Design the sequence.
């Protein structure tokens, strides 16, 4: 099996193969299972290292020796504390737990993530080598003296609110600290300022410069907003520095607000669950099962990639990581089937991003939705179910169309039968079913995931290769906490945005500006709502290009959420609207992290891969607009009774199918669609998404016109002796 390509070199053109064979005449085997370590000879890059280059967070250090033991021991202690908190919460309350949690997490960020600052060329030592060896990169070296100083400062500033030691007028323990809310003394302000600076630096180390810059802008607005002309809608009375630090350090909407609460309760537990499930062999089983289910069809390779993305989303919470994981296994098969690199990359990226949108383990922002709206996580899963089905319906239809338009060949994938795999390894699904079942009978999401983690660990002993011995179980716990370091720093920093917005009233003011912009175009309520939704979608997409998904959702909810709520949109619809567009930043040009990761795997050209990703992910951009602009659209969220749900799902599925034909240029079972038919189909699909009787009737009529046009085109081609299908695309170079 050829190695996975991770460079920009174009992939070789596939050889002509028979209908059920490889160029060698035999079935295509899946790549062997790896041990998740880099090849010492550098022949095959580790998919996890490749994924780290394209995730929202930067790759951390590889720590070993005493420092590695220290970090592992600390992360294990945090994991045990998080598990203990589920069944026996600390008597001092949840905020006390968040203080302890952040005190354990933040110092580890400075030890695990390098500063990665480059000195100006003139300041570098003249005798320093120009090209350092790979082992000398900052990401490979251990912590430096400044890192240890920052880690110590983080520990002190985080633990200061709970230390029973008096420091002048400050200190004195947790209760005394809370009693000074709104009346912080000098020591409190100093410690809060130190923690503020350290959180900004932690975000810079883990995600880059943009999120800290956004936080600084919000801080500047809080401090200098009082100097703005009071006639401006966004002007406020102004906050002094002590008030800002008090809102961040000693309130429920700052550092220790809902985002960090979600990270310390839900995200860390689900990350541990994903690590346990991964080490138990579930990831490999999901890929093999997907291959076995479709191994004898023309679209087996494409269907396998899509199904693998959906199933692997239970293990990975990152679109880029899921893309690389499924690409490392399925790209050689896709290449043998004849998929061009760009089209295969778009399919892999769309499937990877879809994993974050799919139950039962959605992205981190889904847990924030549950906390903000005060609903159970099971309700959020219910809201995401129909959109998930529609999303993957759109991808699968695009796969079917591409298989015919591009002349994809059937390829048999060498693996055991689906029945045999389910009989031997189907137990991997039990822990996933357990989460949903426990939620349904009234368990909290935290207890459900902990019990599911225990079940997954016990079931791992059914496979000798992947049994979770005590050492491997401790490694899974440590890896789970290590995976939440960056998102915890981001969530704590998101408190800067929420606290500033709350204290200044920026949310309602920004919402009023957004609505007034739509009202300047039309006074019709339906048009105003539609324009506001479009403006919000564009704003959220642009925001997601700059900051990680979790921060993008938090900012979008406090700024754009109120605008939708003011126009009568229900809270579930508004929250899911913001959630979807925050997640879709990983598929949106010009950044499109998942598409960049897919292009690195397939060797395809970057820009065409991004546009292919956009085409495959099209339903995810349009469905949120449908459940915001019309009352019937709430049926897409499972709200409004069986009849509304059935009507909305059926009409939306028809819209997705018509849009897939318009985007792909092919009507399955009939033949190619010309430009006029594709334009009519696009109008039909968009009209159907309005989900009201008159637009649905118009959209259905336009869809019928599109089908009739394709039939006429096919008949004309047959009478004139012309080709009844479009020519096969040259697989060496994608042509649009």
Sequence:
């Amino acid at each position: 099996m050829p190695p996975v390509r991770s460079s920009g070199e174009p992939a070789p053109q596939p050889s002509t193969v028979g209908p059920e064979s490889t160029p060698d005449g035999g079935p295509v085997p899946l790549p062997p299972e790896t041990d998740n370590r880099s090849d010492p000879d550098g022949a095959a890059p580790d998919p996890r290292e490749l994924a780290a280059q394209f995730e929202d967070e930067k790759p951390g250090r590889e720590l070993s020796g005493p420092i590695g033991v220290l970090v592992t021991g600390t992360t294990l202690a945090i994991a045990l504390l998080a598990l203990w908190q589920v069944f026996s919460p600390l008597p001092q309350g949840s905020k006390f737990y968040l203080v302890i949690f952040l005190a354990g997490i933040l110092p580890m960020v400075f030890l695990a993530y390098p500063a990665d600052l480059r000195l100006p060329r003139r300041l570098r030592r003249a005798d320093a080598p120009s090209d350092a060896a790979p082992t000398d990169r900052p990401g490979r070296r251990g912590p430096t003296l400044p890192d240890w100083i920052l880690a110590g400062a983080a520990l002190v500033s985080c633990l200061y609110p709970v230390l029973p030691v008096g420091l002048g007028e400050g200190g004195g323990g947790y209760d005394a600290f809370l009693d000074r809310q709104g009346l912080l003394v000098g020591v409190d302000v100093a410690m809060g300022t130190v923690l503020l600076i350290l959180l900004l630096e932690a975000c810079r180390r883990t995600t880059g410069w943009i999120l800290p810059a956004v936080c600084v802008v919000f801080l500047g607005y809080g401090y200098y907003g009082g100097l703005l002309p009071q006639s401006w809608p966004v002007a406020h009375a102004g906050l002094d520095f002590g008030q800002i630090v008090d809102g961040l350090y000693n309130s429920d909407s700052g550092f220790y607000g809902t985002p960090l609460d979600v990270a310390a309760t839900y995200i860390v537990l689900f990350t541990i669950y994903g690590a346990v499930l991964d080490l138990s062999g579930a990831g490999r089983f999901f890929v093999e099962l997907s291959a076995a289910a479709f191994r004898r069809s023309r679209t087996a390779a494409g269907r396998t990639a899509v199904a693998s993305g959906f199933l692997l989303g239970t293990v990975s919470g990152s679109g880029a990581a899921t893309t690389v994981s499924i690409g490392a296994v399925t790209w050689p098969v896709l290449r043998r089937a004849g998929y061009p690199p760009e089209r295969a990359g778009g399919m892999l990226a769309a499937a990877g991003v879809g994993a974050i949108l799919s139950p039962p383990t959605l992205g981190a922002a889904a847990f924030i939705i549950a906390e903000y709206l005060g609903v159970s996580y099971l309700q959020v899963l219910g809201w995401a179910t129909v959109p998930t089905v529609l999303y993957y319906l759109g991808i699968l239809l695009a796969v079917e169309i591409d298989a015919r338009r591009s002349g994809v060949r059937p390829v048999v994938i060498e693996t055991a039968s689906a029945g045999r795999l389910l009989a031997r390894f189907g137990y991997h699904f039990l822990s996933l079913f357990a989460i949903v079942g426990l939620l349904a009978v009234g368990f909290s999401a935290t207890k459900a995931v902990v019990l599911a983690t225990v079940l997954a660990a016990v079931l791992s002993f059914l496979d000798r290769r992947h049994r979770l011995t005590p050492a491997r179980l401790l490694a899974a716990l440590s890896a789970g906490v290590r995976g939440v370091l960056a998102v915890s720093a981001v969530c704590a920093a998101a408190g800067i945005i929420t606290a500033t917005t709350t204290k200044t009233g920026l949310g309602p003011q920004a919402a009023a500006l957004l609505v007034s912009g739509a009202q300047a175009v039309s006074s019709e309520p339906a048009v105003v709502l539609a324009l506001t939704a479009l403006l919000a979608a564009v704003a959220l997409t642009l925001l997601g290009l700059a900051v990680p998904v979790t921060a993008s959702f938090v900012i979008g909810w406090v700024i754009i959420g109120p605008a939708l709520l003011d126009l009568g949109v229900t809270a579930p619809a508004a929250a899911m609207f913001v959630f979807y567009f925050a997640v879709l930043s990983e598929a949106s040009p010009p950044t499109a992290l998942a598409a960049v990761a897919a292009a690195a795997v397939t060797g395809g050209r970057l820009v065409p891969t991004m546009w292919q990703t956009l085409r495959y992910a099209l339903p995810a951009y349009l469905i949120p607009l449908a459940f915001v602009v019309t009352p019937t659209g709430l049926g897409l969220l499972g709200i409004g009774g069986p009849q509304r749900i059935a009507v909305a799902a059926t009409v939306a599925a028809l819209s997705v199918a018509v849009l897939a034909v318009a985007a792909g240029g092919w009507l399955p079972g009939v033949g190619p669609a010309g430009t006029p038919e594709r334009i009519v189909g696009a109008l039909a699909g968009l009209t159907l998404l309005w989900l009201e009787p008159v637009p649905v009737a118009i959209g259905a009529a336009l869809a019928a016109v599109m089908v009739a046009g394709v039939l006429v085109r096919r008949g004309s081609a047959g009478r004139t002796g012309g080709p009844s299908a479009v020519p096969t695309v040259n697989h060496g170079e994608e042509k649009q």
User: Anything to note?
Assistant: The radius of gyration is 27 Å. Residues 257 and 494 are 9 Å apart (CA to CA). Confidence is low (pLDDT under 50) at residues 1-25, 34-45, 122-139, 721-736.
